Structure prediction request, 296 residues.
Amino acid sequence: MRSHRWFTPWLLVGPALLWVLAFSVWPFINTVILSFTNARPLRPAEPVGLANYERLFTDERFSYALITCAVFVVACVPLLTILPLLLALLVEKNIPGISFFRTTYYFPVIASAVVVALMWSWLFDSKGIINQALQFMGIADKPIAFLVDRWWLLACAILLTVWKGLGYYMVVYLAALGNVGKDLHEAAMLDGAGALRRFVSVTIPSVRGAMLLISVLIAVSAMRVFTELDVLSKGRGGPGGYDMSIVMLIRQVGSGLNGNLGYAAAISVALFFLTLLPLIAIAWMNREKKAKGALV
Prediction:
């Protein structure tokens, strides 16, 4: 059988490689270059050295955006790591009608984030269903400023993110739980382990790899949060812009005819390195795990 020519693999890989170079590698390189300039839409760019990066340390807007993203990470990572696992344990049983519940829990994932955020804004509006219900039950005397107060707005956005992501990570856990041997649970039951003990000692260690992967995905997504806060705050980032995320700040700084594209690019580069931190963390944890396994 005649072997293929030397350029055949390159013909197959070529289109994908060109796509990555054109829409990923080159935009990233161009962003890094712009971050060292004072580029604006209608003005030629001039080099400014590290001035844009120095500005990051004194810009209050960036500090507030960093705090917002950090709160998102701290809140969403544990919630979206544990709750989908519990949900997966509930729906993994092969009982009549369980497929309906699996589909129901996954439905928020396929729904548009903008549409869901608009529904959320109607629910938590001062005249929305939530406030009306709280006043009707006598829990609140007046409407709660869910979408006006800094921390209430942030809590609503986090709740929206968790609700929308539950179904997606539930499916990941269902795949991981399918590889867990039933003999482990049966052996634990014979040893007298209860449901909670089996969950801690058998289930969690068995899906540890999936938990690490999900934690990293959530952390990266939380650092790049945009739609939830943008729609709930109507693009203003909450009172005084305190709830503005880093991506929202990039849009605000770089948009318009007077947009500072150089500074927006510097913020983008900073966000890139911030999203690398979870990836470095999981790589280090996997390395430690392999090192312990080699010692054993």
